[in-house]
Amino acid sequence: MDINNATFSNVMVKPINHKGNGLIAQKDLAVIVDTPVLTVPPGLVLSAEAVQEYAKEDRNFSQLLQACGHKSPRHDILLFLLVQLVLDPRPNDRVCLSTPWTEYVRLLDGEVPVPTLWKERERRLLQGTSLETALNAKMMALAHEFDELREKSSDLAFWNVAFWDSGLVHLTDWYLVDAWYRSRVLELPRSGPSLVPCIDMANHSKDANAYYEQNSRDEVLLLLLSGSDVKEGDEVTISYGSGKSAAEMLFSYGFIDSSLTTRSIRLPLSPMPDDPLGKAKAHIFKGPQTIEICEVAGKTAWTSAFVYLMVLNEEDGLGFKVLQDNDGGRELRIFWLDEDVTDQFGTFETLISNHRLCDVFRLRVNMVIYQRLQEQMDTLSLPIPDESDGEFDLGDVNHSNAANARALRRIETEILEKTIEMLEQKASLASGLVNTACTNRELT
């Protein structure tokens, strides 16, 4: 079966309970090396390069892309999708040249369950979760992108009429094309971040039986995994990423995989407000200023490179200097025990390991992490709107979205509780070791 030159081999798109559409095997499928069950030609792959090629064919879109695009592959693809939305309701009055994507966007769901498309009262259910801050930042960023698009495209006569005088484009449309992109984008080795029609109908499973790849002809193939046993009527699935946290899955795809065996939470870290070196630390540390906690088989462990820099002070041996670089400019450099360690900013856990106060530093680290997690736990424990709140109408809430919010709250609460308990035990042990070490030094 061919759809716009995409070739299906014994699989078809069918509705699946609670999942929307998916790919279903039409007969028992055998794993044959290099034989795909779905082949998508390069002309259907929507990448930044494809957007550039489209701009060469359409003068009006080229004008829009020149004025408002070239920020990132994502932004260019969103502009293209927005134009397809404008094309859809006006088949007899084309704004730009139609493409296979003009028809394909009609098949895409206008109610993607990602939180950026939730109602405000549904988003309030995420209060206290790790997703709350990230979601607020994303909503603000999308609004800023849209305002900038409106400002710049309003100066283009053609697009001012097509977008704004017509009243066809609204902020909610920008939310929607971003949701399409975020929930469907594939990272292809040759084309980079891309949307691939038909393959984007493959749902996620931790026990995926298929995978995608791009060949030397830039075709995107869906192939069965070695050892897969796919019977007639079985769903053909891929993995969206086994390392993603529940918050990341909900943010990007609009669901939480209930079968996850590894659970995690990532929280932002900020320098302590009374730290005179705080701004310098935040400026020079180029890695993620976060703490990530992972739970595997009921046991939790945390990782954070930034926290080891956070706890160090000038009297410990930490320093900053503004020096001249090779180009004559000035740059901030970081020093530890008078040694320039700017290129080792993420290795302070190792750098402090031989210091005589190493145990003290680790105790500080433990306390900073404990306080950050307790702060998150306190926020997560605050009352949220529920059935007992007369101002909150649960009848106006999508039950699936509410269930996902509750699942995220439960997962993150359990992870935080276990980690806080572990840190309390470590703090008690570390405090005893530090006191013993100090006593021994005094005796000697």
Draw up the topology in text:
Layout lengths: L1 E2 L2 E3 L2 E6 L3 E6 L12 E3 L7 H10 L1 H10 L4 H15 L12 H5 L15 H4 L6 H24 L3 H9 L5 H14 L1 E3 L3 E3 L15 E5 L5 E5 L10 E2 L9 H8 L8 E7 L9 H7 L5 E7 L2 E5 L2 H5 L7 E7 L5 E7 L2 E2 L7 H4 L6 H24 L17 H45 L1
Antiparallel strand pairs: 1-2, 2-5, 3-4, 4-10, 5-9, 6-7, 8-9, 11-12, 12-13, 14-15, 15-16
Overview of the structural elements:
The chain is an alpha+beta fold and 444 residues long. The protein folds into 2 domains: 2-236, set domain protein methyltransferase, domain 1 (Alpha-Beta Complex), CATH 3.90.1410; 261-443, set domain protein methyltransferase, domain 2. The protein contains 14 helices and 16 strands. The strands form 5 sheets. The protein has a 5-stranded antiparallel sheet with strand order 1-2-5-9-8, with no helix packed on it. Strands 3-4-10 form a 3-stranded antiparallel sheet, with no helix packed on it. Strands 11-12-13 form a 3-stranded antiparallel sheet, covered by helices on one side. Helix 1 packs across helix 2 (59-68) and helix 3 crosses helix 8.
